[in-house]
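ARCHIVE CARD
Drawer: 12
Card no.: 0347
Subject: one protein chain, sequence and derived structure
Cross-reference: see card 0346
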Amino acid sequence: MNNTILHINSSGRLSGSVTRDISTQLVTQLQQQQGTTPVQRDLAEGIPFIDENWITANFTDPEQRTEAQQTALGFSDELIAELQQASHVVIAAPIYNFSVPAVLKAWIDQVARARVTFRYTENGPEGLLKGKKAYLVIASGGVPLGSDVDFVSPYLRQVMSFLGIDDVTVINANELGQAANEAEVVEKLSAIAENS
């Protein structure tokens, strides 16, 4: 595992996005305090959904996969390698219609792979991406984080835990976006990064 930050953006807005702005500032603070190197993955550029070819390839033993099946899993392998190499994961996630953006769900489907990022044991599933720190930068709009209709932060926490990442910090991007000034935002994010 390298000392890198995997920075995942999922907002469809390329400018004026609260999650993009706050997560970028958090990555900057982590770089300064932890000496980490960022790796950018912008899901708004497009990410394929899993399909029958992908599923068949995934359930085929690696030694038995055809060249076409290896190709079908190639992008998934690339995304998983980014996760495996990262020491920190920053996921910027706006809430769209009570859930995560479709591109973020597609990324989750691509990286949650049995025998690669998790495995089944006699005691249930075990995540294989241990020893990492995740930050969930969530902009909720009219959905209060932690409320009965917040399905995103519990879901993303569960996904991280399923993959073996139990050290998770949820950051309310709306609150930080409404801070009095830029210095206040930097101060709060600096404190979060320092406590990593």
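Annotation on reverse: The chain has eight helices and seven strands. The domain at 4-194 is CATH 3.40.50.360 (Rossmann fold).
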